[in-house]
Q: What sequence folds into this?
């Protein structure tokens, strides 16, 4: 079995005129949300062996704040090919993962991340799948399981959505 965790970066600052999108940082809510997701990962033992992070500042910051909640930091690779990538390009990156790695967390961007998650999921809780297909908000986490022996065999409609949460839904559940 393989497990792919897809995490959209947390809420970022609004783009500034003349500013570079790649350098946008998280806003205060985003920093809080990233930590919330990290605590969720720890509490539910969703600890990846490998983390692939887009090189954008907001994705790196999301991962750093989420990782701060973990007991042990997994291996991290900054992957430029994830930045502004479409679903097919992200899938190519995932297919290159060493077959010895069973659980991967990918921190990226919409719309590519949303499109990838929607294309991979074939089964799982109906309500969660509907929410996933509607939107993939900031600081959302999709956990998708695959009955595969190697990442290179990953293909559309081969996964089961194990869970889909967002920092906002987690906060609402604890209120």
A:
């Amino acid at each position: 079995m393989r497990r792919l965790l897809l995490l959209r970066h947390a809420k970022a600052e609004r783009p500034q005129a003349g500013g570079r999108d790649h350098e946008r940082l998280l806003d205060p809510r985003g920093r809080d949300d990233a930590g919330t997701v990290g605590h969720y990962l720890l509490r539910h033992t969703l600890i990846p062996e490998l983390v692939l992070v887009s090189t954008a500042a907001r994705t790196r910051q999301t991962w750093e704040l989420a990782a701060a909640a973990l007991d042990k930091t997994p291996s991290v690779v900054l992957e430029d090919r994830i930045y502004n990538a479409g679903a097919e390009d992200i899938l190519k990156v995932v297919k290159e993962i060493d077959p010895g790695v069973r659980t991967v967390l990918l921190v990226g961007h919409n719309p590519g991340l949303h499109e990838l998650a929607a294309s991979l999921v074939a089964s799982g809780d109906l309500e969660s799948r509907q929410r996933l297909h509607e939107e993939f908000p900031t600081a959302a986490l999709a956990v998708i399981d695959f009955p595969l022996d190697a990442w290179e065999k990953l293909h559309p409609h081969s996964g089961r959505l194990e869970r889909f949460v967002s920092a906002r839904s987690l906060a609402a559940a604890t209120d």
